[in-house]
Automatic annotation (TrEMBL):
Gene: qcrA
Region described as Disordered: spans on this chain: 1-33
Protein name: Cytochrome bc1 complex Rieske iron-sulfur subunit
Keyword hit for Transport: yes
MF (Gene Ontology): 2 iron, 2 sulfur cluster binding; metal ion binding; monooxygenase activity; oxidoreductase activity, acting on paired donors, with incorporation or reduction of molecular oxygen
Species this protein is from: Streptomyces hundungensis
UniProt xrefs under Pfam families: QcrA_N (PF19297), Rieske (PF00355)
Transmembrane segments: 54-75, 95-116, 160-180
Similarity comment: family membership: Belongs to the Rieske iron-sulfur protein family.
Key word NAD present: no
Amino acid sequence: MSSQENSESLPEAQATAHGAVETAGDPFADPGLPAHKPRIQDIDERAAKRSERVVAFLFFLSMVATIGFIASYVIFPVDKIVFIFPFGHVSILNFALGLTLGVALFCIGAGAVHWARTLMSDVEMPAERHEIAAPPEVKAQVLADFRQGAAESGFGRRKLIRNTMFGALAMVPLSGVMLLRDLGTLPEDKLRHTMWSKGKALINMNTNEPLRPEDLLVGSLTFAKPEGLEEDAEDFQTQIAKAALMLVRIKPEDIKDKRELEWSHQGIVAYSKICTHVGCPISLYEQQTHHVLCPCHQSTFDLSDGARVIFGPAGHALPQLRIGVNDEGYLEALGDFEEPVGPAFWERG
Ligand code: FES
């Protein structure tokens, strides 16, 4: 056929092609879509049933994988390492969590794709470009198309697919809920208490020896921890973060705060070392003024006046620990701190 014959016969072909736009005389006209070929599932109900079972199986597999994820989380210890080819040495817990979650999500996706490709309507529908704001009749058409799509997808009719899909989608978020366990247990009243209690000796943090009043000279600054708290203890950091103590000796006549004087021993006062701003350890002491300075944001506390804040962003005085001396002449606590130590805790009630 010559090119001239070709161009003459084109408009007729366009007029008959599926989805063609009428453009008589246009050599670049839309050739339209090829004729629709029905799939095996469209003409054979047994094939459609087979596809339905495959989709349901994939959704069911997703549910099993989600259960596997939860079981892995409970069963496998965090520190167990195994050799798995070709990954090498891996954490069995991470491997199992990744594998099961991956399978759960993959099966939902694969099920949805298989459902769309084999059972939902695959009739191509050309749509012409139009204004962004759809006129009412188009909106009505969209609604009708949506209803038709819902009917053709068999969503209402194929209850097995629908129910297993809902099951798979509902169970996948359980994986995330399980991970919330890693947030740990609730602190309950642990933030309100420290290791200090009546009769606990004050141990020098540098020498690890119990402190006597005569170990502390006027103007000196000493750090202490509670008796029984060893540096190799598993919870050492947790406990010392609350119980770290700062001791200074001030001439009793220089102590202005009445309660501070009562809670001291021969001018030795014990305060929490944890800054009440955002929790830095306080370490700078100015013996002439009895001020201690937090190095982080320069909050300054007056240790001769109840450790009240005289400068900086800290919102509260440092908590004081009431101390005395035991029968053997060592410094000891006479109870726990009366306020929770640390930053901004009191505002939280
Ligand atoms: S933490 Fe001490 S001033 Fe900010």
